[in-house]
Amino acid sequence: MSALFASVTTAVDEWRARDDAEERTRRDFVDALRDHGQAALERSGPPTHVTASAFVFDDDAAHVLLCFHGKGRFWVQPGGHLEAGDTSVAGAALRELQEETGVSPAQLRSIAVADLDHHALGGGFGRCASHLDIGVVGRIQDVAAPLIVSDESDAVAWWPVAALPPNSAPGLAGRLARVLATR
Q1: For every residue of 83-96, which 3-state class applies, written as one string?
Q2: By three-state DSSP, how is residue 37 classified?
Q3: Nearest C-alpha neighbor of 182 from the set 120, 138, 133
Q4: Tens digit of pLDDT per residue, the chain (183 long)?
Q5: Cα separation, 138 vs 42, whole angstroms
Q6: Distances, alpha carbon 158 to alpha carbons 15, 102, 148, in Å
């Protein structure tokens, strides 16, 4: 078993569902990991596979860092597919964060797994039918630090949690509420 597979399995095993919907989501992860093993972590694996994302908030959790996703055409937290060099799900989420926004993992505090989410994808995502996304949360003090925009995004910006952009990813507000409830 790879270190990444062990990290994903631990994150799923330790995550506690608060209601039936969250338990169904957790079971989707368990089933995918049982049925597909390591392949469930790979972009080239089954059409439903594990991804990692990073919810980054300012100190008082009033603002969240979002990217305008080029394929999806919506605002969403930074994240993406796991890669062969990743050794942990948190590390994968933080790698994606740095690639997509320029925010270094060293700038964050209180990093922890905070959310499991299973969401369907539109046709613009190729062979990917849905993602089993593990959300990691962290806080940052310096929201004025310069941000970068990657090739996968059209923009990166801080948004008020209470006033998300109208073209946010489906379910983003609910995920933010779940993440903030765990912190």
Answers
A1: CCCCCCHHHHHHHH
A2: helix
A3: 138
A4: 799 999 999 999 999 999 999 999 999 999 999 999 999 999 898 888 999 999 999 999 999 999 998 877 899 999 999 998 999 999 999 999 999 999 999 999 989 999 999 987 766 666 777 899 999 999 998 888 889 999 888 999 999 999 999 999 989 999 999 999 876
A5: 25
A6: 27, 13, 12
Q: Which residue is associated with the tokens 């310096």?
A: 142
Query: Rounded to a whole number, what is the distance in angstroms from the first to the last CA of the chain?
Result: 30
Determine the residue type at 8: V
The 8 Å CB, 24+ separation contacts for 118-121 are 118/25, 118/28, 118/29, 118/48, 119/170, 119/171, 121/72
Going from N- to C-terminal start, the domains of the chain cover 3-182
**Amino acid identity, position 144:** A
User: What is the architecture, at CATH level 2, of domain 3-182?
Assistant: Alpha-Beta Complex (3.90)
**Cα–Cα nearest to 49, from 78, 24, 81, 71:** 81
DSSP code of residue 169: P
Comparing C-alpha atoms, which of 141, 66, 134 is closest to residue 108? 141
pTM over 0.85: yes
